[in-house]
Amino acid sequence: MVTGMLEPTLNTFDERIVGADRGGQAWCQTDHVDLTGLLSRPQLRPGEARLPWDDEEFSTRMLTEHLDDRHDMASRRGSLIDRHVAWLSTLAPHGHRVLDLGCGPGLYLERFGRAGWEGVGVDVSPAAIGHATRRASILGIGCTYVQGDLRNTRVARPFDLVLCVFGELNTFPIEDVRDVLDVASGAVSRDGRIVIEVSTRAGVADKAGRPVSWYAAAGGLFADGPHVVLRESGWFEDDQATVERWWIMDEFTTSPRMFGSTTWFHYQLAEAIHEAGLVIDGRFGEPTGAAASGEGDFETLVLRRS
Ligand SMILES: C[S@@+](CC[C@H](N)C(=O)[O-])C[C@H]1O[C@@H](n2cnc3c(N)ncnc32)[C@H](O)[C@@H]1O
Q1: 102 CB under 6 A from ligand 1?
Q2: CB distance 222 to 246 below 8 Å
C-alpha cells in the first residue's frame, strides 16, 4: 500500500493548498530555515527509515486518512472493503474466527463482526487500535484489538482466516516477512486460510518511476498545520526495492523533517512461504476473487498449511 497514499489527490489538493486565503502574505513564521542538511542529505538507501506508524501524533493523522472514504490511500473505500469481506468470508465457509494483522482501524473486522464472526486485530497504531476498540464496543460485536507488532505478536487460538492485506508486508525486508508468515502459520487452524495481499514488482517499481515532486497543504498526514512536502524516490535493482522520502517544512521548521519508507518486491516470497510450512492455494488479482491480470500493483495469495 502505502506510499502512494501520502500525496493528496487532485480533488483534495485545492482544499488543502496553503496560502489561498492569506492574500499572498509570507506564511512562514520562522526567521530562518536551514536548508544545508537538505543539500548534503545522504544517498537514498533501502531500509533507511519506516513511517512512524506507532507514533501517537502521526497515527492520529493517519487515522483521518484511513477513515476518509473519498480515497483509497491508507485504507480502501468502504464499498470496496464490503466486496473484499464478502469474498474473504467464502474462503472459510464454516469459519467464524478471523485474525487481521495490520488491521488499522478495524474496517475489515468490523464487517466480519457484524456478520457474526469473532475477530482479533493487531496493529502498532495507537490511534487506529483506540478507534477500532471503541467501534467494537459501540456496535456490540465480538472483535478485540491488540496494540502490537505484527512481526512478533502471537495470539493464542486457532483462526479460520488470517489476513494481512494492502501490501503492508512489502514495507518489511524479507527476513521480517518470514517472521510474519511464522506468526500467521502458528495462528491459522488446520483447515483455515491465510490471505496476504502483496505488491507486484510493477507496483513497487512504479513508485520509483514518479518524478521528484512537491505539494503544499493546510494540514495532512505529515503535519497538522500548513506545510510543504518535497518527495524524492529511487529504485534499487540489487534490492528490488523502491525508497521514498518526504521532506516536510512547516511554520515551525528550522530544518526540514524527513519521513521515509522502503517498499520491497519479494522475489523470495514463494520460498519463504514454503519454509513457513505453508502452500499457495490460490492467486488472485485482488481480494474480490478477481483473476490476476499480471499487470496490477497488487496480488492476493491464499495460503494454507502444508
Ligand atoms: C496501509 S495500512 C492498512 C490497514 C488495514 N489493513 C486496511 O487495509 O484497512 C497498514 C497498517 O499496518 C500497520 N502497521 C505498520 N507496521 C506495523 C507493524 N510493525 N506491526 C503492526 N502493524 C503495523 C499500520 O499501523 C497500518 O494500520
Answers
A1: yes
A2: yes
Amino acid at 137: S
Q: How far apart are CA 288 and CA 304, in angstroms?
A: 18
Confidence check: pLDDT of 4 > 80:
no
Across the beta sheet with 241-250, the strand order is 213-217, 227-236, 241-250, 257-264
Whether residue 131 is found in the same domain as residue 158: yes
Q: Looking at the domain assignment, is residue 57 inside a domain?
A: no
Question: Mean pLDDT score of the chain, rounded to an integer?
Answer: 91
Pocket-testing residue among 53, 65, 107, 261, ligand 1, by greatest number of atoms within 8 A of Cβ: 53
- Asked if residue 93 and residue 12 are part of one domain, the reply reads no
Place of cell 482544499: 15
Q: Is the CB of 263 under 6 A from ligand 1?
A: no
Provide the domain count of the chain.
2
Q: Residue 178 pLDDT more than 80? A: yes
pTM above 0.85, yes or no: yes
Ligand 1 atom closest to Cα of residue 122 = 21
Same domain, 252 and 275: no
What's the confidence (pLDDT) of residue 93?
83
The span from the CA of 117 to the CA of 144, in Å, is 11
Give the tens place of pLDDT for each residue, 196-236.
999 999 999 999 988 999 999 999 999 999 999 999 999 99
Instruction: Indicate whether residue 104 lines ligand 1 (CB < 6 A).
Output: yes
Whether residue 152 is found in the same domain as residue 279: yes
What range defines the domain where residue 196 resides? 66-201+266-305
Question: In this structure, what CATH number is given to the domain that contains residue 151?
Answer: 3.40.50.150
Ligand 1: atom nearest CA of 107 is 9
| 56 CA distance to ligand 1 middle (Å) | 14
